Automatic annotation (TrEMBL):
<feature type="region of interest" description="Disordered">
    <location>
        <begin position="343"/>
        <end position="363"/>
    </location>
</feature>
<dbReference type="GO" id="GO:0005524">
    <property type="term" value="F:ATP binding"/>
</dbReference>
<dbReference type="InterPro" id="IPR003593">
    <property type="entry name" value="AAA+_ATPase"/>
</dbReference>
<keyword id="KW-0813">Transport</keyword>
<keyword id="KW-0547">Nucleotide-binding</keyword>
<dbReference type="InterPro" id="IPR027417">
    <property type="entry name" value="P-loop_NTPase"/>
</dbReference>
<dbReference type="InterPro" id="IPR013563">
    <property type="entry name" value="Oligopep_ABC_C"/>
</dbReference>
<dbReference type="InterPro" id="IPR003439">
    <property type="entry name" value="ABC_transporter-like_ATP-bd"/>
</dbReference>
<protein>
    <submittedName>
        <fullName>ABC transporter ATP-binding protein</fullName>
    </submittedName>
</protein>
<keyword id="KW-0067">ATP-binding</keyword>
<dbReference type="InterPro" id="IPR017871">
    <property type="entry name" value="ABC_transporter-like_CS"/>
</dbReference>
<dbReference type="InterPro" id="IPR050319">
    <property type="entry name" value="ABC_transp_ATP-bind"/>
</dbReference>
<comment type="similarity">
    <text>Belongs to the ABC transporter superfamily.</text>
</comment>
<feature type="domain" description="ABC transporter">
    <location>
        <begin position="25"/>
        <end position="265"/>
    </location>
</feature>
<dbReference type="Pfam" id="PF08352">
    <property type="entry name" value="oligo_HPY"/>
</dbReference>
<dbReference type="Pfam" id="PF00005">
    <property type="entry name" value="ABC_tran"/>
</dbReference>
Length: 363
């Protein structure tokens, strides 16, 4: 959303270092025994610089939203560290988390599910002021109405309920609530995916204007690759809990290096009919493996048209490859070369079962 930045410029606001988030699977009625774990986030390293927008893309279930909730402190991490302005927030006490959340807010995907239908809009937007004791009474009402006007809502609708607003207006309510304490970082978890296309543009342009006005930093999660290209300075592509590729936005879209990134981009819609006709679609075979029992080595190898024996045995590091721009890192033993076509090529390693084999537990 902000002017395109060169990797390495600017102060690091958020640093994600080797973060893992596993959810235990328990069976049994009286004595619940752990029989497996969902590897939602599995060793993620990311940097978010002050004032930039980092886009995160990937298929459903790749760990994008879980990572977002770890960054905002909504999920405790299994291991690893998340540093915000140099402070490790993963082990903060409740008092420390409360102060941290003044600087980090979240806009949720469902603009209606994230709002309490029994409460009036004024009290919903005013909650941050009440929780952090920064404004009360007439002062709180004045600041709430200023926020409503800022995001394009009528301040006179202060006493209405969420059901009296459209989907786009509800999302503006969520944006106003996130802005209440003037945070430094806002995590946008697919903030426009539930809205009509015309409303999506309005909300995205609103977020862009707010970033320019208040110097906000965004982590923007979305499925729409063209939208991510428009709003982001850098992009991280996730697959099955890991980052497959990360770089400045134009480096990823013009010269993708990971086969999974290339496949995602080949499936993106193109507005130019001539370009769409020339585009070569990369069709991935097989199913996404289960995050309960991820495959060994590179997690993409069962579906990858370039996979070889090394991919099964060795997990590729997320590093810069020869000829790539600074900050362009890829987790692939055999990255896509410029001009190389993967269209029509099938996975070179047989697909294994993606169903986890969980043990039986006596009741």
């Amino acid at each position: 959303m902000s002017a395109r930045r060169i990797e390495g410029e600017g102060e690091v606001l958020v640093s994600v270092e080797g973060v893992y988030k596993h959810f235990p699977i328990r069976q049994g009625i009286v004595f619940k025994k752990e029989v497996g774990r969902v590897h939602a986030v599995d060793g993620v390293d990311l940097r978010v610089r002050r004032g930039e927008t980092l886009g995160i893309v990937g298929e459903s279930g790749c760990g994008k939203s879980t990572l977002a909730r770890c960054i905002t402190g909504l999920h405790p991490v299994t291991s690893g560290r998340i540093l915000f302005e140099g402070t490790d927030i993963t082990g903060l006490p409740k008092s420390g988390l409360k102060a941290f959340r003044r600087d980090v807010q979240m806009i949720f995907q469902d603009p209606y599910g994230s709002l309490n239908p029994r409460r009036r809009v004024g009290s919903i937007i005013g909650d941050p002021f009440a929780v952090h004791a920064t404004a009360a009474g007439a002062e709180r009402k004045r600041r709430v109405q200023e926020l409503m006007e800022l995001v394009g809502l009528n301040p006179e609708h202060y006493n209405r309920f969420p059901a009296e607003f459209s989907g786009g207006q509800r999302q503006r309510i969520g944006v106003a609530r996130a802005l209440a304490l003037r945070p430094k970082l806002i995590v946008c978890d697919e903030p426009v995916s539930a809205l009509d296309v015309s409303i999506q543009a309005q909300v995205v342009n609103l977020l862009k204007d707010l970033q320019d006005e208040f110097g906000l930093t965004y982590v923007f999660i979305a499925h729409d690759l063209s939208l991510v290209r428009y709003v982001s300075d850098r992009v991280a592509v996730m697959y099955l809990g890991k980052v497959a590729e990360a770089a400045a936005v134009e480096d990823v879209y013009v010269r993708p290096r990971h086969p999974y990134t290339a496949a995602l981009l080949s499936a993106a819609s193109v507005s130019d009919p001539d370009a769409a006709e020339r585009a070569e679609r990369i069709v991935l075979t097989g199913d996404v493996p289960s995050p309960i029992q991820p495959p060994p080595g590179c997690r993409f190898h069962p579906r990858c048209p370039k996979a070889a024996g090394r991919c099964v045995e060795e997990d590729p590091p997320l590093i810069r490859r020869d000829g790539d721009a600074p900050g362009h890192v890829t987790a692939c033993h055999f990255p896509v070369e410029p001009g190389e076509s993967l269209a029509g090529r099938e996975a070179s390693i047989a697909q294994v079962s993606t169903q986890p084999d969980l043990p039986e537990v006596e009741q």
